[in-house]
Amino acid sequence: MLEFLLTPDAIMALLTLTFLEIILGIDNIVFISIAANKLPEHQRSKATNIGLLLAMLQRIILLFFVSFLIGLKEPFYTIDNSWLHVGISWQAIILFVGGLFLIYKSTSEIREKVETPSHDENNVKHKKITSLSQAITQILIIDFIFSVDSILTAVGMTNGLHPNHNYALVLMIIAVVISIIIMIGFANPIRKFIDTHPSMQILGLAFLILIGFMLITEAAHLSHTSVFGQTVGAIPKGYLYFAIAFSLFVEFLNYRVTKNKNK
What we know:
With about 260 residues, the chain is mainly alpha-helical. It has one domain. Helices cover about 80% and strands about 5% of the residues.
């Protein structure tokens, strides 16, 4: 296990996944803050921390469930005709549907953030919260909604790194725990940074489109799909790491140029 966690692929996956989990968690932090701010001041910090810790537990449980489904590799139905061959398994279904969901959700989020950036925040603000338990319940509901794309991202970044799915599961759990700890300790500075540089969140959502497409091709590859005799290959994760690193480098250059102009 330790040897796997120290491999370059595992380290790169962990760093990239932790970064994406934090970027994806920004909206979560904003909505949690809105819900917590409806409480008396002495309860706000407590509600936020309890909510985030329970959210971490909720995500880990969901990761176990999704990992169990991903482990069901054996095809239960096969389509085999003159132009198409597909061995349908639960693994392929989860990856394929997850990929479509990530592409849909990311595209919708980008559109919403560009055209109606305060829509979701206004919905949360209008909900009444009068007690700590109500705030924590609201936080858990909010986090569950945001957990789906977070978990699918984790699956996309770690699937295929090791034949043993338990190793990938440990890697996903470590990334989730680190991201939640960082969000608890640095929620306000992270939120202020994203508010100042909203392009970072758009960039993170754009990465999800790449991950969604990668999940779809991986589902086709693992189900041994062939169309007119041409098999579908999986996209090497190194391409994804390079795209993310290059995009972040360009964003850093833009940040430096803007900062120098402001001076």
